[in-house]
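Backbone shapes recur. Consider a single case.
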Amino acid sequence: MLDRVLARPKVSAGLATLVLVAIALPALGMHTQSSGIEGLPADVPVRGTYERVQAAFPGTTEPAQVVVRAADVTAPAVQAGIERLREQAVATGRMSEPIGVQVNPAKDLAIVELPLQGTGESQEALASLAALRDEVVPATIAAVPGTTVDITGMTAGSKDFNDAMKAHLPIVFGFVLGLAFILLLVTFRSVVIPLEAIVLNLLSVGASYGVLTLVFQHGWGASLLGTEAVGGITSWLPLFLFVVLFGLSMDYHVFIISRIREAVLGGATTDRAVAEGIKSTAGVVTSAAAVMIAVFAIFATLGAIEFKQMGVGLAAAILIDATIVRAVLLPATMKLLGDWNWYLPRGLAWLPRGGQTARPATQTAAASRA
């Protein structure tokens, strides 16, 4: 297969890129959410009990909690504000009775529990939370002098966690990609190799996100895993997958590129070094990938939806990375770039060498045949 890839590098690189982009495209519509009780298998008794309570008393299983702090929450002005909060909350049609109020012994904090329409992070629940935060609370209890008001609860906590994760994703991505670029730049004394590694690894991660979105958000093949479409991906999973998969992909990449670089330093042409480097590492990469895919696939058989998603995401990414990326796209792009793979601007000639040792071309060829 490698010989065919290297014989037609443009076609191979183009087709591999199209396949990876097509798989990754659904990730553009990825929605993250807290799995909550819906993440448990349908036959678990606690889920059945929860659903019956929710059906009989909508919103009471996951109420929003308005936390009011004041010098004395039993003061007439604060109590009047809480009463207005109750009235206007019910008047919106997005919250309902019974509304409970709890006051701590010090009388400096009160918790108002408001049942929301909808469950979890459904559109109805998020709309109810927005009405509470943006309309009801500012116009009632928050307008009382001397009060401090915060809003929590399952829906609010899940939404805030999602917002925080999305806000910090660019920081994590930037740090990981920047550090990887610097390390590869110093190791291989090339600006092309780090950029190539980052692009290839991002394609692997993107494809993994796309598979997750298709299976768990749109329901493609979900029945084969004993589950159904849940409308979104567990909130913490995208960032977790990025960090883990980027590390695993980079491990493969450095291992393969090191063999190729050794051959080049030993006098082989880049084209020959690519062929020999890929062939000499294929057995190790394939074996390691097979073990990891088997291990990660076990998680997909578990009951909790977040473990299923983690298993499918990791297994799919490793499979894609070890086949399409490392066996097709990497050698094809390196063949197309040729000696440009090792381009280093003169201004960076001062960089220390990574301690690489050259392997004579004859030794490399013998090793690959063995």
